[in-house]
From TrEMBL:
Coiled coil residues, start to end: 835-881
Protein name, UniProt field: UPF0182 protein SAMN02745227_00833
Source organism per UniProt: Anaerobranca californiensis DSM 14826
Gene Ontology cellular-component terms listed: extracellular region; plasma membrane
Similarity comment: Belongs to the UPF0182 family.
Membrane topology: Multi-pass membrane protein
Length: 881
């Protein structure tokens, strides 16, 4: 049995060692293939070295404390009655070797339970002062971003070691005190008192040392009205924390002195004072809050609210935002203004990304195993003009294959990559409401002169499985890139174990030229190369230089920025880097775009060869840099409250905004930030911006809109345009209400919604032009027999006039050129006989439209719809006369 146990133990040990070797060696091979071995070796070696040092310190600390106990600890023999005979087992005496074993095991347990600390150590060592200090202690931001997290980790580690060491000591002394060996019991009591005093001294020293952390935490906590220390914290809690610190130092000294003098009374009095200050601080703070602060809260908290507002704006990168009054004009738009803003009009996004994805998937997937994950928005120079486009990449989704085709060969050798890009202008559709294409099909055809030499997509958002390229499997095209790890017999064995795929070891089609490519999902790939970067949720593809590139915005964040509001666990964020991934080669290049961010500067010190300068960003990709969506969404949410910098306004909450809402699929939803090409007020050039509108709290009128610039030297600038007070500007939800209440438009939508069809209202866009706002909403119709939404109408609102036409140009002509629009809720008089006849003809045309819709005869439907329009125009002229 003993031999069998040894054999089983050896086998298990070999398996464990082989799995560990597989993991670390294959990880090293991958990092080496990416040229970033420092990202693998530095954290691994640093963490190993730190944990080894901590293990040594813990071992010595535990052993030194255990040795006195070992000298007095004995386990008395156990009396056993057997065959009417009492047998007493020998007394078990502990030896130093037992203490060494226990100390080592406890040290291993302690180190294993500790969280990773290498990053905090490295960041601290590579940090430098920022020159900005908090308003209470005048401590540099460096303390909060780097020192505070490290000291907090050290503090937690030390106190856990103290308690872990105390556990065997308490257990051992309890055994000794209950032993019948009285001679050693006296020594045990003596040792216990000494060690108890030492442990108390260590605890009080730790307590005193961590009071600075408690002071700092006052600036990080959430209060009743704001984050950070308020009047009560500064005038009540802070003095008591300092008093606790002094008392704890005194107690530590008394504990050490008490080893000799053994005056427990003095120690008890001082300890009682510490307990009173700890528990009494809450009572004292409550008294100050209720009787001093609350009666004059606005005045007392005013400076601290000012600190909070300034820190929150700084923490979320809003300190340099420009707040501008929008030059509102009643009649700012006419034909001449539209012509001067032709690029804005030509780039109004009529295509909604949600219906467009359905079109792409239905018409351009061109294979069961191809799929479009997302539709992104960008801009390109096309025929010398700045054009906004929507595009998506055609990726491989192996899960879409038939069940019979779900084989290891298909998964990992045959269906290795996606192919090509689909691109559409944002404002052009066919006669049947379908998108038009700049890029489409396989091979990719282009109507705009953008050529793809490498349309293959080996790295994307759906590329989750490993692949083997350049094998001998028939029909698989060769891979000419440099990604992946070369395979030999030994590596095949390791990878077969890593991925639990025997085909890697047994396949005869793998050659010496074959390579295995893994971690192909761009999110996972970036996370492996730069785990300290938080990625934007919307990677977007760019067609440039004959290839497809992914651009991903990267953030550095912190949760320990003083006085700043916490949102989803962070209170500091910077778009510090842009990350570029080649869809064919899989290279990951990181470029620093924020030179002032102390966190990315520290990481650059940790990995000096990983992060490149902004100036090195490829020229062919610079025109496609855009302000990141996640950051803008977060900043726009923060600004609903923090657009004001006046503590009195902040306290009263009488100028709080909300994100404007719109209607989509019958539900009210927040307006998503959207990219648009337009000319900003007081600017001469059209540019690509990201914008979002605001309404006042519990109101529907629009009060402001936020814009983020993306082009050239103005990249990253935030502009907050506020409408003049006292002037009414319709918000998106009000326009939606006008559409719902308009007799003609609402009846049309009701009609279209019958007979199995569904009406989808796209994004309601607010387009600022020359001091006025133009509102545009596309209308899609999906027939029951057809899964694809068709863009059928465009609703435009301006200056109390609402029109709906099949095209945007047609709607603008009705508004500003050929004819007038229809005012919302325009009343109709039905007393006149001629008027009744006209209404009857309109009803007849509506019935014909309904029948055509039910029969799916869309040509007749369009004819009857035009007849209804003509009749309604006649009705309008009749009423005006």
């Amino acid at each position: 049995m003993k031999k069998i146990a040894i054999i089983i133990g050896l086998i298990l040990g070999i398996i464990i060692l082989f799995n560990l070797a597989t993991h670390y060696y294959t990880e090293y091979l991958w990092f080496s293939s990416m040229g970033v071995t420092e990202v693998f070796l530095k954290p691994f070696l640093a963490e190993f070295l730190i944990k080894l040092i901590l293990l040594g310190l813990a071992f010595v600390f535990i052993l030194v404390n255990l040795l006195p106990l070992i000298t007095v600890l004995e386990l008395p023999g156990i009396r056993v009655v057997k065959n009417n005979e009492t047998i007493t087992t020998p007394t078990f005496k502990f030896k130093k070797v037992h203490g060494i074993i226990i100390a080592f095991l406890l040290g291993i347990i302690w180190v294993a339970l500790l969280p990773s600390i290498w990053d905090k150590v490295y960041l601290y060592l590579n940090s430098s002062p920022t020159g900005l200090v908090d308003p209470i202690f005048n401590w540099d931001e460096r303390f909060y971003l780097f020192t505070y997290p490290l000291l907090t980790a050290i503090s937690g580690s030390f106190i856990s070691l103290l308690f872990l060491t105390a556990l065997p000591l308490v257990a051992g002394y309890l055994v000794a005190f209950n032993s019948n060996i009285y001679s050693k019991k006296e020594r045990a009591v003596k040792y216990a008192k000494t060690q108890g005093a030492i442990f108390l001294a260590l605890f009080f020293i730790w307590f005193a040392a961590t009071r600075n952390l408690s002071m700092a935490s006052l600036l990080l906590k959430e209060g009743n009205r704001f984050y950070g220390a308020g009047y009560t914290d500064i005038h009540a809690r802070l003095p008591l924390i300092r008093l606790q610190q002094i008392i704890a130092v005194i107690l530590a000294v008394i504990s050490l002195v008490n080893i000799k003098v053994k005056k427990l009374k003095l120690m008890g009095i001082t300890a009682g004072l510490l307990i009173i200050t700890i528990f009494g601080s809450g009572i004292y703070a409550a008294i100050i809050q209720n009787f001093v602060v609350n009666p004059n809260e606005a005045q007392k908290e005013s400076p601290y609210m000012g600190y909070h507002i300034a820190a929150t704006r700084r923490g979320y990168g809003l300190e340099n935002i420009k707040q501008i009054e929008y030059p509102l004009k009643k009649d700012g738009i006419n034909l001449e203004v539209l012509e001067n803003n032709r690029e804005t009009i030509e780039n109004i996004r009529l295509l909604d990304y949600r219906p467009l994805k359905q079109h792409y998937q239905q018409n351009q997937s061109l294979g069961l195993f191809y799929e479009f994950v997302d539709v992104d928005i960008d801009r390109y120079k096309i025929d010398g003009k700045y054009r906004q486009v929507m595009l998506a990449v055609r990726e491989t989704n192996i899960k879409s294959l038939a069940r019979e085709a779900q084989t290891p060969v298909n998964h990992h050798f045959r269906y290795t990559h996606g192919y090509g890009v689909v691109m559409s202008p944002v404002n052009k559709v066919t006669n049947n409401g379908h998108p038009t294409y700049y890029l489409k099909d396989m091979p990719v055809t282009s109507s705009i002169g953008i050529n793809l030499e490498r349309p293959e997509i080996y790295f994307g958002e759906l590329t989750n499985q490993f692949i083997v390229v350049n094998s001998n499997y028939e029909g698989v095209e060769p891979y000419h890139g440099n990604a992946g790890v070369n395979l030999n017999l030994f590596r095949r064995l390791l990878y077969a174990n890593k991925f639990k795929k025997s085909i890697l070891l047994l396949s005869s089609e793998i050659t010496p030229e074959s390579r295995i490519i893994y971690y192909r999902n761009i999110v996972e790939r970036i996370n492996k190369v730069a785990p300290f970067i938080q990625q934007d949720s919307d990677p977007y593809p760019v067609v440039a230089n004959g290839r497809i590139y992914w651009i991903v915005d990267g953030y550095t964040t912190s949760s320990t920025y003083p006085y700043s509001k916490s949102t989803k666990g962070i209170n500091y964020i910077r778009n510090s880097v842009k990350i570029v991934v080649d869809a064919y080669e899989g290279t990951v290049d990181i470029y620093q775009f924020d030179q002032e961010d102390p966190i990315i500067n520290s990481w650059k010190g940790v990995f000096p060869n990983l992060i490149k300068e902004k100036e090195d960003f490829p020229q062919y990709l610079k025109p496609h840099i855009r302000y990141p969506l996640d950051l803008f969404t977060l900043q726009s949410e923060i600004l609903t409250v923090y657009h004001t910098q006046d503590p009195a306004v902040f306290y009263n909450r009488n100028d709080v905004w909300e994100i404007a809402v719109e209607r989509y699929h019958g539900n009210e939803v927040k307006v998503e930030p959207y990219y648009i090409i337009m000319r900003l007020p007081h600017h001469n050039e059209q540019e690509f911006i990201l914008k979002r509108p605001y309404t006042p709290m519990n109101r529907n009128n629009m009060v402001a809109w936020l814009a983020a610039r993306s082009d050239g030297e103005h990249y990253g600038e935030l502009l907050l345009y506020q409408f003049p007070r006292g002037q009414h500007v319709e918000g998106p939800s009000q326009i939606e209400s006008y559409i719902d209440s308009d007799p003609y438009i609402s009846s049309q939508m009701t009609l279209w919604g019958q007979g199995g069809s569904t009406v989808i209202r796209g994004n309601l866009l607010t387009i600022p032009i020359n001091g006025s706002i133009l509102y545009v909403e596309p209308i899609y119709i999906t027939a029951e027999s057809r899964s694809l939404p068709e863009l059928r109408q465009v609703v435009v609102f301006y200056n109390d006039v609402l029109v709906m036409e099949p095209t945007l140009e047609g709607a603008l002509k009705r508004l500003f050129g050929e004819g007038e629009g229809v005012k919302p809720q325009d009343p109709v008089d039905t007393d006149d006989e001629n008027l009744k006849e006209l209404i009857q003809r309109i009803n007849t045309a509506f019935v014909n439209m309904e029948n055509a819709a039910r029969n799916g005869n869309w040509a007749d439907y369009g004819k009857y719809m035009e007849e209804v329009k003509r009749l309604l125009e006649s009705l309008e002229r009749y009423l005006n006369d």
